[in-house]
């Protein structure tokens, strides 16, 4: 019998599957890479047949796929997608799932947990009833756990069933083209690598601003909030790439890069002046969102001032902010260099991660003409503007699914990174709440609470947009 590779998604009727995973599989299908993940089993509680599910999924794929939608390409993808109804919290249901896998001739597995972390443990318990499951790979969505203690327990549970090197903890920011590019821009260019330190840089601002609110994810988000949803994972990953020492290779990520990232996360300084180091906010109208508590104090915005206790970054602030329902969508790393003289403006390097991918550099020139004045030259390289580039650049999930099949673990978060980030995020949140600092309200469409501007003003800086 021909035993097949089977890619199973738990949480197949959720937002992540519709918006990210199925469109990624479609793109892989168009670029002839979909076969690498094998047949796709979608697990959900709703009462659909495979045929009904494929019809529903079609609209999402059409809307969210990176590559142009055609019926022919979708039908090719859909032919390999099967819906299986089950309650994945019911251990008894896994015996039947095992029979279904038998019918599908499935033996080698990749399981994708596209569900809230509180369900991970019961899925693992259930999978003990599925033959060969423990030899498979598992992809876990972030956040990994809900705090350090839960993350540790979860890790133990996962490692007691799956082989540690078969556990892939996804952080989709690591699959973004410009996040991977940070390392190359830094280390392959002596004009930057030679001045990448506190001696030459005034501050670094990392922003992940979103226009959308919590939309259909209120139930998950209200238990999470911006610190756990974005800072603990995506933003700390970026911070650690921006601040790490040079790993051996200029471009390829690997063990060495991972070690350097850990060193950064372990050197995060825990501030004494918490009120000047962290601002949490909530957009007006958040409490009226579906599945959000009416007295919720969950933050939909977080801004931080952090320092690293190491020689390279001594006394230089990293400003980090993220939020929902803001004026526009923008993810960027802005490096503000020290000025050459008091009346001269800073050089600014902006690594633009999304929606536009590119690099902006601002530097000083003589103003053309007779006057003896200095002006700013602004060079803006747009990497994503050309259609060819868009066609060639895989979207993050597409890239990471392929990396999982190939066993390229360095594209994923490693356990000790997660542990170091949780340690910091748990403690700083605790200090904020112990001091009873407010969760500031802000207007949808704004740049977040004024308190976040004031935090920078107090430090003699301001957010650059
Ligand atoms: C997810 C968060 O990990 O990242 C979401 O859970 C957030 O709340 C999303 O909206 C942002 O991802 P992207 O790729 O749109 O920047």
UniProtKB/TrEMBL annotation:
NADP(+) binds at residues 45, 87-88, 142. It catalyses: D-glucose 6-phosphate + NADP(+) = 6-phospho-D-glucono-1,5-lactone + NADPH + H(+). Pathway: Carbohydrate degradation; pentose phosphate pathway; D-ribulose 5-phosphate from D-glucose 6-phosphate (oxidative stage): step 1/3. Residues 184-463 form the Glucose-6-phosphate dehydrogenase C-terminal domain. Its EC number is 1.1.1.49. Coiled coil: none annotated. The active site is at 234 (proton acceptor). It holds the Pfam family G6PD_N. Keywords: Carbohydrate metabolism, Glucose metabolism, NADP, Oxidoreductase. One of its GO terms (biological process) is pentose-phosphate shunt, oxidative branch. It is an enzyme of class 1 (oxidoreductase). Residues 9-181 form the Glucose-6-phosphate dehydrogenase NAD-binding domain. Substrate binds at residues 172, 176, 210, 229, 324. Catalyzes the oxidation of glucose 6-phosphate to 6-phosphogluconolactone. This is Glucose-6-phosphate 1-dehydrogenase. It comes from Blautia pseudococcoides. The lineage of its organism: Bacteria, Bacillati, Bacillota, Clostridia, Lachnospirales.
């Amino acid at each position: 019998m021909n035993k097949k590779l089977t890619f199973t998604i738990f949480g197949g009727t959720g937002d992540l599957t519709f918006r990210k995973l199925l469109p990624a599989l479609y793109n892989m299908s168009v670029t002839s890479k979909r076969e690498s993940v094998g047949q796709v089993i979608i697990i959900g509680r709703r009462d659909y047949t495979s045929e009904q599910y494929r019809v529903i999924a079609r609209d999402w794929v059409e809307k969210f796929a990176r590559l142009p939608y055609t019926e022919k390409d979708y039908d090719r993808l859909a032919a390999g997608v099967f819906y299986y109804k089950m309650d994945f919290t019911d251990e008894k249901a896994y015996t039947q799932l095992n029979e279904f896998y038998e019918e599908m001739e499935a033996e080698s597995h990749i399981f994708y947990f596209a569900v809230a972390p509180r369900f991970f443990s019961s899925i693992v318990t259930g999978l003990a009833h599925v033959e060969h499951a423990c030899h498979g790979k598992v992809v876990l969505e972030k956040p990994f756990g809900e705090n350090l203690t839960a993350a540790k327990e979860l890790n133990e549970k996962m490692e007691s069933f799956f082989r540690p090197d078969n556990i892939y903890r996804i952080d989709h920011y690591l699959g973004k083209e410009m996040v991977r590019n940070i390392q190359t821009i830094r280390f392959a260019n002596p004009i930057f690598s030679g001045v990448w330190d506190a001696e030459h840089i005034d501050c670094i601002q990392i922003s992940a601003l979103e226009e959308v609110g919590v939309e259909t994810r209120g139930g998950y988000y209200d238990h999470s909030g911006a610190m756990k949803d974005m800072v603990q994972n995506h933003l700390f990953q970026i911070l650690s790439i921006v601040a790490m020492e040079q790993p051996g290779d200029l471009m390829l990520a690997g063990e060495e890069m991972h070690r350097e990232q850990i060193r950064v996360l372990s050197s995060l300084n825990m501030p004494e002046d918490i009120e000047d180091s962290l601002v949490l906010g909530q957009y007006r109208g958040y409490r009226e969102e579906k599945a959000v508590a009416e007295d919720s104090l969950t933050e939909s915005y977080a801004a931080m001032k952090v320092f690293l206790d190491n020689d390279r970054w001594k006394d230089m602030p990293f400003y980090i902010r993220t939020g929902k329902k803001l004026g526009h969508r923008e993810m960027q790393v802005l490096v503000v260099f020290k000025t050459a003289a008091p009346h001269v403006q800073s050089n600014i390097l902006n690594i633009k991660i999304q929606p536009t991918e590119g690099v902006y550099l601002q530097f000083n020139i003589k103003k053309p003409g007779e006057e003896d004045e200095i002006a700013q030259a602004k060079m803006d390289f747009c990497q994503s503007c050309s259609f060819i580039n868009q066609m060639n650049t895989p979207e993050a999930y597409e890239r990471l699914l392929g990396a999982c099949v190939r066993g390229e673990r360095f594209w994923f978060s490693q356990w000790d990174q997660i542990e170091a980030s949780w340690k910091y995020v748990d403690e700083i949140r605790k200090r904020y709440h112990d001091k009873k600092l407010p969760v500031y309200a802000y207007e949808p469409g704004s740049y977040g609470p004024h308190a976040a501007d004031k935090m920078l003003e107090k430090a003699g800086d301001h957010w650059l947009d």
